[in-house]
Amino acid sequence: MPPKKGPTCSLEILGSKSDLEPFPSLPTTSSISKELDLESAVFSVPRAPSLIPSPTKRFRAADVRDRVKRQKALPSPRGPTHFPSVPTASVDEDTQEASPNFVDDPWKSSTPSLGYEMFLDAVSHGLVEFLQVSCDFCVVRGWDERKSEATQSWYHLQFIKVADCIKVACQCPSASCFHERFLQEYYGTEFLPTPNLSPSEETPASFFFRVKIAQDIFKNMISVAASSFGDPSGRALVIFEGMDTGSGMWECSKDSKDAIRCNGPCTHIKVAAEELGRELNVGVEVHLGTGCLAKYLLNVAGTPVRRVSEEVAVSYLPILPPLWAVISSDQALYPRPSPVRSQPGTFCLTSSSTCCCLGGDRSIFSPDKPTLIHSGTLFTMLQSFPCSVQVQPCPKCPTSCQHFIGPDLRELGVFNYNNSTFVTHELLDEYTNVFTLSETPFDAWVDVLSNRYEASGAIFMGKDLFRSCWFAYARLQKFDGDFCCPECGSYPENIIWDGVTLGFYKSQVLPTIQPPTSTGAESEIRPTRYVPNQQILPTATLRKLLRSVVASSGDAQVQARTVPLPPDNQEQVDRLKVDLLSVFPSLGNLFGQHFQSKDPIPAPVKRFFYQLAAEESVIQMINRSAQQHLQMFIANPQAENESSLLDCPHVYQLLQFDRQHRGGAAYSIIVLDVVKWLLHRSEEVLNQLLENSPPSSIQCSTPGMTPLQPVSVRPQDWERTGCFYGMPQLRIRPLYPHLPGDQQKDGQRGGKCAKPPPDITLGSSCGKYYIAYGKRQLTGGIMVVWCTHSISYGFHCIPKSEGRNDVFSAMVTRWPQAPKRVIYDFACALGPYCLLREPDFFADTLFIIDKFHARDHSKCSPACFTSTYSAVNPDVKKINTSAAESGNSLILRIRKSVSYMSQHRAIIYTKVFLSVVNRRKIRSLS
Hints:
The structure is a single chain. By secondary structure, this protein is an alpha+beta fold. Among the domains are: 323-476, no CATH class; 494-528 and 708-825 and 881-925, no CATH class. 31% of the residues lie in helices and 13% in strands. It has a six-stranded mixed beta sheet, sandwiched between helices. The longest helix has 24 residues, at 669-692. The protein is elongated and about 105 Å long. The two termini are 67 Å apart. It comes from Leucocoprinus birnbaumii.
């Protein structure tokens, strides 16, 4: 083994974000090209001499002293520790003879140290990066042997192959360097080396790490060669946190923690700035072409570290939900164990023991094969205990991977992460309890546990390790049946949709994300085209004049006129009556009867005419269900039949007023004629929509029809797609090629909806201002559907920005029959969007705006507001239209944590949060 070198080139990254996810492995070429401006980035750097040092180079005296101090600060390997260097003897006496891992190389012993096993596991999961920057140099992340976790420091590692021997020199301060051992073991495998990389003298500056940490703020790391001949101790690591303009904090591991505050940047920073394409003095980017960048990206793309799923553990069997979150539909998978309060005995293998093989297919324990005893640490709520576990070498995994078959341990209330780290279910459930009740990031929770562990003199696990343990545990927990309200059933008739600004960085979006808006080869192609003139009155001028006259006489919805109209308004009334007579004679006569009279105008009459002047479709006022009730009333216009018209409040109030005004005996002929005309107009528009988009596979699943079969999906596919609903997917979203921009976003919230969407063509636009979305370059958040009891029925991630397509696609793909009422803050636009595409599916659905957002819709008609229907219908009045806002206020607790997560973890974190919130609501209902 080559001699160790001192800590001559370490870099401590200062000011790390407490809520950052573990640093990911180096991004691919495509992800870097998205974050870097390929047109402006410059990689023109001076050449440097060879950096291969002499293997017998002496340490400087200062380096020796620093190393001695570090070694003294480390715990003695012979003292009491939870991670002994060598596991105890095998359970079977013949194990060593039969073990397949015994080879002549001392590094590849069948009894490797437990600390090295955890190091290997961290490397395989991408928590410790080995980033090759040239054919003979790597940059590696530091490793804390006491906490068994990656550090914030980075070091250079040089290697060269001499004959059949691999010479390695690492500059980390560890007394027993795992980096050297790993490289010697894995040299020539899929990890190292990467072929076709340039030698170090041709790569004097290597940009090897970039991650987004805030809006327009990136962390960049560059390995820079020495300015003169020398060994790797002259190579520096430069870190830059700031904007791509060059404005920010520059740090060099060799010359200064913050060279910008000194007398100008050092040579390493200048070279790094050239490598990043920035001019520090004036902040001007130097444009010298993209050839160097393209060449470098090839090197980056070839980094050998493979990043596999971080949520794979030795434990794999389903786990019970926490006791405080149990609901009646949960199954008793196994007897719930008592909390662990003392040191356990040896964890033994059972018939259910397996290995977390990287390929996915788990190897099962074989009683006929030899076993070993390994040591590990059990973490509980109050302290940690050293423990031992019986393991068996995995026959499928490569010998160099050091993977073993281990026990599942769920019946003991213990989660086996990697056969060396064991965590009680109680501890992991406690974090779930805390972060769903208040904003608690992982880092803060680990700090709390670390302080608690100090009372027993123990050390809690690192933040990265706990984060990985929790996500692996959360994937196994059986939070099933909690996206359904026991009061509303599987498909509630009243649903509330709302988008939540719960997003993660767009740079983390993977191609696997698949919201309900996604289409494919199986999507049905529909012949739908735009249908204009869906309003009640034919011309926009007439509608505008009618609104003006009604509004000038007082509050259009409540007040009654008590004084005569001004002369100008009287002329408008006369002209308006003539225009209405041309539309329908009884309509003009009813208008003149009240508006040309000197008597106060009754409020029901004013509200009725104000609704007739609406720019929305007539179907918003009278849908198919209301048409059927209106037909039955016209066939028998009696007072006892008025209650069937509650879904059409303007007609109901007009008829009620007319009957009472006539002494309660009968209705006037003129009013009945107007109601018949209105029914005919609504039927005419609905028939046009149905002819334009005839029924097909998107048909309602009525009791007399064969039930729709769910679309085939893989188990837990929601983790990959970011789409989870409590009901199965029944259809795939159709395609509408004759509707230009069908799947285009409506525009990010943050700008005014200045123009109506092209498929509405209903005149004046909605006056509501959108809320700011897409801030800090995050994804569009999530779309969540709630019942009136604030229980979520599902959600999906929105890659860009919220739109009507998200709500439409979710209902079309999941609901066998459209809901009776859909409440949404943009229902005024959602209704026409849905009825144009699938009129038969949504013909009986009422689209209304919740009370919370109604005040922002200054130009929408009363038929769009919940208050209009709740004034006459007790069933609507009982609906808690703010249920979504109540649920969204809880989701904000995890907004900060999710914003720094990867896509996969953000989806799991959100789903667990909503499951727990739902369970608390369900328990309160029961």
